[in-house]
Every structure is written in C-alpha cells, then in structure tokens.
Specification:
Elements lengths: L9 E6 L21 E6 L8 H4 L30 E3 L1 H7 L3 E6 L9 H15 L3 E5 L3 H13 L2 E7 L5 H9 L3 E5 L3 H13 L4 E2 L6 H6 L1 H9 L7 E5 L4 H15 L8 E7 L4 H7 L26 H10 L4 E4 L1 H15 L5 H15 L8 E6 L7 H5 L12 H12 L4
Parallel strand pairs: 4-12, 5-6, 5-8, 6-7, 9-10, 9-12, 10-11
Antiparallel strand pairs: 1-2, 3-4
Bound molecules: pyridoxal-5'-phosphate and zinc ion.
C-alpha cells in the first residue's frame, strides 16, 4: 500500500494548443499563442498502485489525490464528491434503455458538481497565497466558490449577470458572505469584467478557464468507473455549457487509459439547450471552431452560455470518443426533469435534466442502442431553482378538514385519466 507516498502527482501547466510550458501562476491563457491551458500530469507513480489501493479512503474527490495537481496537505474541503450512482430501472424502461444510471451530482455540499472543481481551485489558490478569489457565474460556480472561500477564510467576489440567476443559487452566494456583484449584461460580460480584475491581480479567478478546476472535476469520472467496479460504460451523457466538465471527464478517461486501469473510452455525449447551442452547431458541422451566440436563451440557466470558453476541448472530447453532441428544447428538458422525479425520486435542475432529455431523444432516433450501458450525469440539485419547478407542476389542492373530502380527492387523483 503506497498511498502515503503519492500525495500529489508531479505536474506542469502547459498550453493545450501549442504545448508551451506556462510558469506564470496567474496566466489563464498561453502567453505565446493565447491558447487554452491544461495540466499535464506525470502519472508514472500511479502506475505502481492499483484502484483497490485507493479504496481505503472514502469515496470522494480526494480519494483520487494521486491524479490531482494539488498537495492534499493544503486541501480546502467540505467533503465534496462521493455522490450516488443510481441504477435507474424505471427510467430506463420508460426510455427503452436496458442499462441506465444517473450520477446525482446534486448531492454535493453546495448542490452541484462545481464543488469538485472548487475544492481543487481554492486549495491551489491557498497554495499561491491568494487572499481574494472571484468568478463570473450563471449561479452554481458562485454558490460553490462562496462556500469554499468561507472555508478557506478568503474574500470572495462573484460577478453575476443581472436578473438571470436561479433564486437558490443567488441565496447561497449571499448566504456564504460573498460580495455579490450584479453586472449589467449577460454571462459573457460578467466574465470579461472578472478577467480584467484577475489580469490586474486584484483577485484570483476561479472560472473554468482556470486549469486547476477541471482537474478536480475529473473525479466524477473516477467515481463512476469506481462505482461500476471498473467496467466502463458504453456512453456518458452530460449537459454542456461553458464546456469544461465534458473536457474534464474526457481527460480523466485518458488518464485512466494511460495508467492501464481501463481499456476503452466511453462515448462522451454532450447535450445543449436548443436556444443556446454553439458547441452542438460546431459538432454538426464537423468543425473545431465554436461560433459565439450573442443572445443565448433557455430555461436551463446553468447552460445558458453563448461563448463557451472550453468549446474546442469539448469538441475534441466528443470527436475522439465517437460521441455525439445534440440539442434538446426547453419543453423536452422540463418533461425529462419531471420524468426523472416521478420514476426515480430524483430532483435535478433543468440543465441537469438536459442529459436525460438527450438520452430520450438519441434513443428515439436510434443513435443510442437499447442495450448500451449509459450513465447520465445530473449536474445539479432541483432545489436550486424552485421557480421552474412550481411553474410546471399543479397547484396544491384545496381540502376541507374532513376525512371524506381527503378520500374524494385521492380517489379522483388515482383514477385513470382518459
Ligand atoms: C456549470 C453547470 C453545467 C455546465 O457545465 P460546463 O462545464 O460549463 O459545461 C451544467 N449543469 C449545471 C447544474 C452546472 O452548474
Ligand atoms: Zn500556446
């Protein structure tokens, strides 16, 4: 058992496009070519251990510390990850898929997968000695960063597009004491302002352009494979917004291949909302260039992003694994959200339901086979956005203080509807 020997894999930050090594810890893009950055892990030490060795630690992000670029001694953690992987038989039956699973990321500490990246990003900020951290956000990133900044004792500034954030997420950021700045404009405007602050070194930016966050997000894939006892699913479906998460999942797969723990790649399948789908459009064109959408619109606010920063990385993830990228309408998202709740007792936010809506659509189109083993990653908790739920369910039923009246109501409700 060599677990204690590997607290952090050796690594360097490199340009994803030209390969140049980047040493400025505040660089978010390559100083040579302006390309996206990534972390190159040296996994030679991991090749000496087995998946079984990691299982002495509880399921969660830090079980996989040997794949992470931050020394665990510096970790800022509120026990992120370790989320359930449900075998969803009733959902699968409704959709005509034999072997389906839902990875419910809504059970992370702040209710979304963003916590996996934030534990890594904020731990790294601590290593750098940062006192102020910040992000622009459609909601969940800010909720998560605000919580981790509290835990780390750092000041936190979040830049939100005015009026477009789900209520639960806004409440969380304010609750954790972040400086919440409502910026006149959309998400892309809020991000541009946050980046200016970072470039002037007035804060350390923890948007997904930060190369350390996807490193923590890799853990969702590590957990799925671990929970399936290293039997790789045929396909993993997830919603795509800024597009870093599907890239993180891809990177995790390549690293498990590299150390020989898995022998095949799952088909990574990205789902976008029809009103906000620049990555899906590029995929349909077989292109690597994402053309920004100036006015993205969808009820799934977590993926309402017109200019996805990691679009190119996401496209590579899908092309390389023979996955697909498609869109679903807001109506399909709402239907899928309700279906998941009523078949499996799982309440996810609209962006997360996009993965289930995508499964339904791709199965109906015959692109997904009935006997595929499929995992839908459901990225966030439905309670984040109660407004959307209440707009799509019936009102409470007026009832007299009387047993007979209750019986009447239940009988009517149970009667088959014609
Ligand atoms: C952030 C987020 C997404 C999108 O993830 P990207 O990495 O931006 O593609 C999807 N669902 C939820 C709930 C999110 O918070
Ligand atoms: Zn470069």
């Amino acid at each position: 058992m060599q677990e204690d020997l590997i607290v952090m894999a050796a690594h360097k930050v490199v340009c994803w496009e030209c390969g140049a090594e980047v040493t400025d810890p505040y660089a978010n893009l390559c100083p040579k070519c302006n390309g996206l950055l990534t972390v190159k892990m040296d996994l030679s030490a991991v090749s000496e251990i087995t998946p079984e060795d990691l299982r002495s630690k509880k399921l969660g992000v830090w079980r996989y510390a040997p794949f992470m670029p931050v020394d665990e001694a510096n970790k800022v953690s509120i026990q992120e990850g370790g989320t359930p992987l449900y075998k969803t038989e009733a959902l699968g039956e409704a959709l005509g898929v034999k072997d389906s699973f839902v990875k419910f990321e809504g059970l992370n500490p702040t209710g979304s997968f963003k916590d996996r990246g934030m534990t890594m990003g904020v731990s790294h900020a601590k290593e750098l000695g940062a006192k102020v951290v910040g992000c622009a956000s459609t909601g969940n990133t800010s909720a998560s960063l605000a919580a981790y900044a509290s835990k780390a004792g750092m000041q936190c500034a979040v830049f939100l597009p005015s009026g477009k954030v789900a209520m639960g997420k806004l409440a969380q950021a304010l609750f954790f004491g972040a400086n919440v700045l409502s910026v006149d404009g959309n998400f892309d405007d809020a991000l541009a302002l946050a980046r200016k602050m970072h470039d002037e070194r007035k804060l350390y930016l923890l948007n997904s352009i930060n190369p350390y966050r996807p490193e923590g997000q890799k853990s969702v894939l590590f957990e799925i494979i671990d929970q399936l006892d290293y039997e790789v699913p045929d396909r993993i479906i997830l919603p795509v917004g800024n597009a870093a998460n599907i890239w993180a999942v891809y990177k995790a797969c390549t690293e498990l291949m590299e150390v020989g723990w898995i022998k095949k790649m799952p088909k990574l399948t990205g789902i976008q909302a029809a009103g906000s789908c620049p990555v899906a459009t590029a995929f349909q064109d077989g292109s690597m260039d994402v053309i920004a959408e100036p006015n993205p619109e969808t009820i799934a606010t977590a993926i309402r992003i017109g200019n996805p920063i990691s679009g190119k990385k996401a496209l590579k993830a899908m092309y390389d694994t023979k996955g697909v990228c498609t869109t679903v309408t807001d109506e399909e998202i709402i239907q899928a959200q309700l279906l998941l709740g009523r078949t499996e007792g799982v309440c996810v936010e609209p962006a997360s339901a996009a993965s289930v809506a995508g499964l339904k659509k791709l199965r109906a189109q015959g692109i997904i086979e009935p006997d595929e083993k499929v995992v839908c990653i459901c990225t966030g908790n439905g309670l984040k956005d109660p407004d959307t739920i209440l707009n799509n369910v019936p009102k409470p039923i007026p009832c007299m203080n009387d047993v007979a009246d209750v019986e009447r109501i239940l009988k009517e409700a149970a009667a088959p509807k014609e």
